[in-house]
Structure formats: structure tokens, C-alpha cells
């Protein structure tokens, strides 16, 4: 299967992360898939942002859950960009998406959008939270899901199977060839993050990963010439 390059929060190395500008740039640069992160606003909107609070990536302060969507729209998310909601990203780009549930409470809201907008063939659902993936599976039995992990051992394969995930998205600093081979034998695809240098790319290709999540467009270009 083709090695995938996945744009991390769009292409956050060159554009404000998790903004429409970043997602459109990722598609323009030819990323195979675009990854984004989801939280719920105070009034239940599927807000695209990585952190649980707005401090790092906007000119505001405080938890996302303390803001209504209208209040979040007043914040600058970088270079004049506004915080988008998931539905806006779906409309702004045509590329396949990876939607990472950061707040478990967002699982049901995401399931409703995926069903209502007929997006199950276009969107993979990711999470660090096993319970979020289990809920997605119960609500949407045919959804494609992936377990994300930063600190893990071989047990991550059993965790993925327990929630019926079809893919692992793993921190490349801890991935081993043994883990990749066992995951592949268990019918799990393996994506590595974050792949931001030629050496990172050589590592993930050497480990026979199925794809790389990157902040930079040039990794997409380099991936075509590595094997």
C-alpha cells in the first residue's frame, strides 16, 4: 500500500496550526491526508484546536470549554485566522481527514456530523483515549479508527484490538521494528509522528511504517524519493 504523508494540524511548520489557512495549504502542497484536533466549545461546537485551552495558539486565555463558539471566533488564531469548526474544514478542503478527539465528550458530536454529512469514507477518527474510540465504534460500527500513543510498549497492539481500531499512530521515538512487524501481522497499519527531518523520514521508511505525520510540506516531496 502507498506510503502516506499526513499534514499535522494542516502544515503547522509553515502556517498557523489547525486553521483553514493551514489546511488549505496542506492540500495545495499535496498531502495525502490532513490531520486535525477536536474539542467541544461551551455550547457544543466541534472546535478545531489541539490544546484544552486557548493560551498557546490564540491571543486569549482559558479553557476552550469556558468559551462559546461566538466568543472563540473573536480570538486571533495566528496571522488573523479564526478558530474553525470541523464542518468548515470539511467544506474547505477535499482531502481525506484524520479527526483526533482530544476531549472524549466530542465523540458523540463527531459521530453525528460524520453520519449527517456522509463522511465515513473520508474521515478516520483518532484518539489517545481508548474510551473515545470505543464510543465511536458503538455509535458508528463501520468507522475507521486509530489509536494514538506517545508512551507505549507491545501492549499497544492489544489496546488497539480491544477498541477495534485498524491503525496505530505512534511517537517515532519509541517505535521498534518488532512492534511494527507484530502490528502488521495483527492487521494494523502503523503511522509515525512527528516526522520533520530527512533522518526521521529514513527512520520510518526503514521501520516499514505505512505513513508519516509531518509539520512540513517538504517531507511530502522527500517521501516520494525514499524507499
TrEMBL record:
Organism: Streptomyces melanosporofaciens
Protein name, entry field: Glycerophosphoryl diester phosphodiesterase
Residue span, GP-PDE domain: 3-224
Classification via PANTHER family: GLYCEROPHOSPHODIESTER PHOSPHODIESTERASE, CYTOPLASMIC, GLYCEROPHOSPHORYL DIESTER PHOSPHODIESTERASE
Entry's Gene Ontology BP terms: lipid metabolic process
Annotated signal peptide: none
Pfam families: GDPD
PROSITE patterns from the UniProt entry: GP_PDE (PS51704)
MF terms in GO: phosphoric diester hydrolase activity
SUPFAM superfamilies membership: PLC-like phosphodiesterases (SSF51695)
Amino acid at each position: 500500500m502507498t506510503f502516506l504523508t499526513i499534514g499535522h494540524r494542516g502544515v503547522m511548520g509553515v502556517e498557523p496550526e489547525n486553521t483553514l489557512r493551514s489546511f488549505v495549504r496542506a492540500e495545495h502542497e499535496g498531502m495525502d491526508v490532513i490531520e486535525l484536533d477536536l474539542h467541544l466549545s461551551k455550547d457544543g461546537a466541534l472546535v478545531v484546536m489541539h490544546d484544552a485551552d486557548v493560551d498557546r495558539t490564540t491571543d486569549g486565555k482559558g479553557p476552550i470549554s469556558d468559551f462559546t463558539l461566538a466568543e472563540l471566533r473573536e480570538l486571533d488564531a495566528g496571522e488573523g485566522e479564526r478558530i474553525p469548526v470541523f464542518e468548515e474544514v470539511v467544506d474547505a478542503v477535499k482531502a481525506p481527514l484524520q479527526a483526533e478527539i482530544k476531549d472524549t465528550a466530542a465523540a458523540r458530536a463527531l459521530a453525528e456530523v460524520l453520519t449527517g454529512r456522509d463522511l465515513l469514507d473520508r474521515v478516520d477518527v483518532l484518539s489517545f483515549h481508548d474510551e473515545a474510540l470505543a464510543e465511536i465504534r458503538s455509535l458508528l460500527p463501520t468507522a475507521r479508527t486509530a489509536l494514538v500513543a506517545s508512551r507505549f510498549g507491545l501492549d499497544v497492539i492489544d489496546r488497539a484490538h480491544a477498541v477495534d481500531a485498524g491503525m496505530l499512530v505512534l511517537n517515532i521515538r519509541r517505535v521498534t521494528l518488532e512492534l511494527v512487524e507484530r502490528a502488521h501481522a495483527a492487521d494494523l497499519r502503523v503511522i509515525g509522528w512527528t516526522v520533520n527531518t530527512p533522518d526521521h523520514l529514513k527512520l520510518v521508511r526503514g521501520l516499514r511504517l505505512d505513513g508519516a505525520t509531518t509539520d512540513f510540506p517538504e517531507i511530502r516531496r522527500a517521501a516520494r524519493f525514499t524507499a
